[in-house]
Amino acid sequence: MKIVIVFLLFITFAQAQQKSFSEAALNDVFLSEKNEEITLSDIFQQYKGKTVFIDIWASWCKDCIVGLPKVQKLREKNPEIVFLFLSLDKETDSWKHGIEKYGVVGENYFISSGWKGSFCSSIDLDWIPRYMVVNSEGEISLYKAIETNDKNLLKALK
């Protein structure tokens, strides 16, 4: 019985540490700051060959706002990395106001499908902020962190 439980825990952990995005996630439609629709796949295509730090956030999220200055410090220390901010605000006006109000410097997109859409569902989003890192080969090297000082996050950025 113990072996079965350990095996199931291992399988669950292995699944939670995905190395790539699902087809549904890649086809999910986001909105650019210029109000243009773009798929996640097309967003990643723009940054092919580069490491991408993803910050899933919202302007109404206290933990996200507290984390933003720390993320900006990471961005300053790692100018070669693309910082991709994906917003779960309920309205685009709130999102754009949040970018300005909190000085969110980087590539900004609005998750049109929301929390229950293909992208968020595929990554089992259960909390924001959620940090992810996609390496220069396009693989997810860090699947989940909620703190900027997470040792696995810092390792993935090197």
General description of the model:
- The protein has 158 residues and is an alpha/beta fold.
- The chain has a single domain (20-157), classed as Glutaredoxin, CATH 3.40.30.10.
- The protein has seven helices and seven strands, in the order H-H-E-E-H-E-H-E-H-E-H-E-E-H.
- The longest helix has 16 residues, at 62-77.
- Mean pLDDT is 89; it is low at 2-16.
Output the keywords.
single chain; disordered N terminus; 158 residues; 7 helices; seven-stranded mixed β-sheet
The name CATH uses for the topology is: Glutaredoxin
Order of helices and strands: HHEEHEHEHEHEEH
CATH architecture: 3-Layer(aba) Sandwich
Q: What characterizes the major β-sheet? A: 7 strands, mixed
Outline: globular
What structural category characterises the helix and strand content? alpha/beta
Query: What's the tally of helices?
Result: 7
